[in-house]
């Protein structure tokens, strides 16, 4: 394994919760507030890990396995996504399909854990989560398929390696459409505005938050940390498509600079998310499917455009 690959993994594990701080402080800036401390997500995780967990008598092993399987799935997905110009720790032909399935596995066990409580309230959130994920997954799959066609690669590391300035000049419309679709998927998968509000406690508008209401202690810490890692993973996917970091070469210094450039891109993406949440309202539930269908249409259009441009 390339030493840089291990460094990328350690950076993700250590810095993923920091993106939540950037988002929250950006929102505080727009609201004229000071915002939380820079390491507040780490304090919250530490506090939850030292608390006990309470389990209802109606739940089974599925409820306890949900946070663990979800965290394991996103950790596995993390090993498939590169940072900078260094390949991911695990890279092979077709890993892009495994990446999508791992995110689906994480969501599947979160929904199962919510349904296992027997609560109609959590069942409402689970049904919404499944509906929106069913609309977001085609946008993700078609978008990645479009990039795979443009780069003639089936590995995420090789796909991002092939995204260069020259490719942007040749297929800029295709990559721009894919990026727009992936941003919508990014906001949906991470329960951000305009799809969902991670800070809401209104019963009629909750989606992701309602599914984890019965979790506490270490289980809730696993869920929150897994959500931070998911934010990091999908963010790296978007930044890797936008930033042609391979132009920096493959030497030691260019490799370090490419990692710094991608980390800066993640911070900028977090600032953009904070700005979106500060300037937009949450969409009505009936409007969210239209947004996701539009993202899927953009991905499909990028696939058609790529075929037309490529002849």
Tell me what the structure shows.
With 311 residues, the chain is mainly α. It has one domain. The protein is built from eleven helices and no strands. The chain has helices at 3-31, 40-49, 61-78, 95-116, 120-151, 156-162, 165-189, 208-211, 218-242, 252-279, 288-310. Helix 5 (120-151) runs parallel beside helix 11 (288-310). The radius of gyration is 19 Å and the shape is globular. The two termini are 38 Å apart. Residues 248-253 have low confidence and may be disordered.
Q: What is the number of E strands?
A: 0
Round the Cα radius of gyration to an integer and report it: 19 Å
Helix content: over 70%
Order of helices and strands: HHHHHHHHHHH
Strand content: under 5%
| Mean residue pLDDT | 87
CA-based shape: globular
Question: Which terms summarize this structure?
Answer:
mainly alpha; globular; 311 residues
Mind sketching the topology for me?
Blueprint: H1 3-31, H2 40-49, H3 61-78, H4 95-116, H5 120-151, H6 156-162, H7 165-189, H8 208-211, H9 218-242, H10 252-279, H11 288-310
Helix pairs in contact: 1-9, 1-10, 2-9, 3-4, 3-9, 4-5, 5-7, 5-11, 7-9, 7-11, 9-10
A few lines on this structure:
The chain is mainly α and 311 residues long.
